[in-house]
Amino acid sequence: MLSQRLATYLEESTGIKLSGGQVRRILKKKKYVYIWGKYSLESQRNPEIKAFKIKIAEYFKIEKLTTERLQVGLG
């Protein structure tokens, strides 16, 4: 649980030992809220990005097989 991990970290950095429940109560009293990050679905929404990734993957496969025919570089 996140609060237990935070309690362990606080004990290591400050030397003050707290339980996960104590950390949760303190954060709730101070009105702190933890929200999980959401994963980006941009590549699934835009078919052009997905098509580009597939095409570039194919180019890399060809480049590994025959270096004389195609060279793809990044950057």
Short description:
With 75 residues, the chain is mainly alpha-helical. It has two domains: 1-33, no CATH class; 41-75. It is built from four helices and no strands.
The outline comes out as elongated
Poorly predicted sequence stretches spanning 5 or more consecutive residues? none
What is the end-to-end distance? 41 Å
Rounded mean pLDDT score: 80
**Estimated helix fraction:** 55-70%
Number-wise, the strands total 0
Strand content: under 5%
Computed CA radius of gyration, to the nearest angstrom:
24 Å
Query: Structural class of the helix and strand makeup?
Result: mainly alpha
The number of helices is: 4
Largest sheet: none
Total separate domains: 2
Q: What is the element string, with H for helices and E for strands?
A: HHHH
What this model shows, in words?
- This protein has 75 residues and is mostly helical.
- The protein folds into 2 domains: 1-33, no CATH class; 41-75.
- The chain is built from 4 helices and no strands.
- Helix 1 crosses helix 2.
- The longest helix is centred in the last third of the chain and has 19 residues, at 47-65.
- The two termini are 41 Å apart.
- The mean pLDDT is 80.
Name some characteristics of this structure.
75 residues, mainly alpha, 4 helices, elongated
Helix-strand layout with pairing:
Elements: H1 2-14, H2 20-29, H3 42-45, H4 47-65
Helix pairs in contact: 1-2
